[in-house]
Specification:
By secondary structure, the chain is of the alpha+beta class. It has 7 helices and 8 strands; from the N terminus they run αββαβαββββαβααα. Strands 4-7-3-8 form a 4-stranded antiparallel beta sheet. A two-stranded antiparallel sheet has the order 1-2. It is globular. The two termini are 27 Å apart.
Length: 268
């Protein structure tokens, strides 16, 4: 059952975090997931009692715990990732996409990545990646404004594979019908490479991918927020952090070690 799968993933994450703390005596940010749905909410009006409400749905019944703490960690907590992805889908449908349509704009999807290696320091890699991302954002302000961008919706995905932590960014952006997206891609690649180089990283031409409206589902970024893209449809060996928890719970020590390395790198 899905409920049990989420509970097992949460429990295994808590076990790995606790074991790492005993060894290092330092907390990984996101440590609050050890309390998620295990402790009373801090603002509870009834601190002595938690309850489970059973509600009827179109598929049958579902049980939900109330008045308990939620860590809100979309990348490390299986329960909160689903909740945040659900709320993002609602916001896209009810606010963002209607606004884009009213203004006569289109939506595109920008994906940014960089070369990565298993033997590298994943924490240093993630830190430099985000430094590069900040420089890239400053360099691209005028370029995005010129194509009709009114802002972006950003998510981060961080699966792990044979080459280590595959950190990458998805930006849902807007553009006008007259925008030259081929020119934008060339500019984006040039400036992304420059930003990465400044911080000791690099990428090939595949470091930038731009998709136009109709070539992707805008809900894709909500799916990536929850890290549910398991890459089953490709030849990639990448697995999500939640798949690592599944493997770790079955006794795979390498999967558990990779999950801790990734958790420390992204720091919640």
């Amino acid at each position: 059952m899905k409920y049990n799968a989420l509970a097992i993933q949460q429990h295994q994450a808590a076990r790995l975090l606790t074991a790492d703390y005993k060894k290092t005596r330092t907390n990984i940010l996101g440590d609050g997931l050890k309390l998620c749905r295990r402790a009373k909410a801090h603002n509870s009006t009834n601190p002595d009692t938690a309850y489970i409400a059973v509600q009827q749905t179109t598929d049958g019944y579902k049980a939900k715990m109330h008045d308990v703490a939620h860590c809100g960690n979309a990348h490390l907590c299986a329960f909160c990732s689903n909740a945040k992805a659900y709320h993002m889908r609602l916001w896209l449908d009810q606010e963002f996409l209607p606004t884009v349509n009213r203004q006569g704009l289109f939506t595109g999807l920008l994906t940014l990545t960089a070369h990565h290696q298993r033997e590298s320091d994943w924490s240093a890699y993630a830190k430099n990646f985000y430094f590069a991302l900040a420089d890239f954002a400053n360099a691209m302000q005028r370029d995005f404004k010129a194509i009709g961008s009114i802002g972006r919706v950003r998510t981060m995905e961080c699966p792990v594979g044979g080459n280590g932590l595959h950190l990458h960014i998805h930006d849902l952006f807007t553009y006008a019908c007259i925008a030259d997206l081929e020119a934008l891609k060339a500019t984006t690649l040039k400036k992304w490479k420059a930003a990465l180089r400044k911080h000791g990283l690099r990428c090939s031409k595949r470091g930038v991918d731009i998709r136009v409206q109709g070539d992707f589902n805008p809900h894709y970024i909500a799916k990536e927020l929850a890290a549910h893209d398991t890459k089953d449809g490709s030849k990639s060996d990448l697995v999500t952090l939640f798949k690592l928890l599944d493997k770790s719970a079955r006794g795979d020590k390498q999967a558990g070690a990779d999950w801790v390395r990734a958790a420390r790198a992204i720091q919640g």
